[in-house]
Amino acid sequence: MSKAKKVLRLNKSRRDLIFAVLVSLPVVIMTTLFILVPVVDSVYKSFLDYRTKNIIKNIPGEWNNFKNYTDLFKGDKLWSAIIVTFVFVVFVVVLQIVIGFILALVLDSGVKGSRLIRSIMMLPWVVPTIISALLWMWLFQAEYGLFKYLIDLVTFGKVTDFAMLNNMDTALFGVSNAALWKQIPLSTLLLLAGLANVPTDTLEAAALDGANYLQRLFYVVIPSMQSVVSITISMAIIQNFKQFPLFWVMTGGGPNGATTNLAILSYREAFVSRNLGSGAAVTTIWMILMIIIVYINQRIFSDNK
Fold it and tell me: Is residue 40 part of a domain?
């Protein structure tokens, strides 16, 4: 290769590198300013005595020797919020993946009108979360809601005063229903895209070897979709771990703390109790737990490859 060609090739590589840096720079800047900096600032403030008065009077927070964390772990509200969060996440994510996978299999089977079904199915996902919460509040309304009417109908008038969101034993289930209704469509489409990439020749070979439908499903289809399933589960975990609008609009964390998850607790500590340091501590614990769960999910699927 001549010296001139080497110089041209080197110049082209440099231009490509400069172009890649310039294209990536806005993303790096936005990520740093609006994600990394707030996260670091929140973690830092979680170790300080930092309240609303500090902002109003422009007074820096003072180191309080981990008091925000020790106070949280001494009381019951943090543990209760962690339990509510985990119960909600596990319940919603498991049903979301199972129901989404079943719907994806049905749509992938070539059922008549599958394109129309896909379009209609995406409506709950398109509806804003606040609107979804208000819709489900109306369905669960204690006096004239549709659910009250159905309960009255099924029990032949024996149960007339059941209120889903006002009952400590059922309020979390009510919010979970709203979350499932909104989130299942996206999971279904993601899993449907994964089904489209399953090698047909492997399926045909398994069928020729005498494998029935369930055997092909568990030994060929699902293993071929591990990356898609892993991503779908991770997205579902993150979305439900940080779920705030549904809880706040539908129950406000009640009744009696039955639906107070980590998001609600963080909001109350920071903006109701006006203890921004304590709210930041809840957020830090919340973020660490979410990262651990997502990491475990990723390791489980990576180990099974």
Answer: no
Identify whether residues 6 and 127 lie together within a single domain: no
pLDDT for 110 equals 76
49 vs 61: CA distance, rounded Å: 5
SS3 state of residue 49: strand
User: Do the domain assignments include residue 44?
Assistant: no
By CB atoms closer than 10 A (0-12, 13-18, 19+), residue 265 is buried
- pTM attached to this predicted model: 0.89
In a domain, 41, yes or no: no
For 20, residues 6+ apart whose C-beta sits below 8 A from its C-beta are: none
pLDDT category, 236, cuts 50, 70, 90?
very high
pLDDT at 126 over 60: yes
CA distances from 66 to 110, 226, 281 (A): 58, 41, 9
Q: Which domain holds residue 126?
A: 50-303
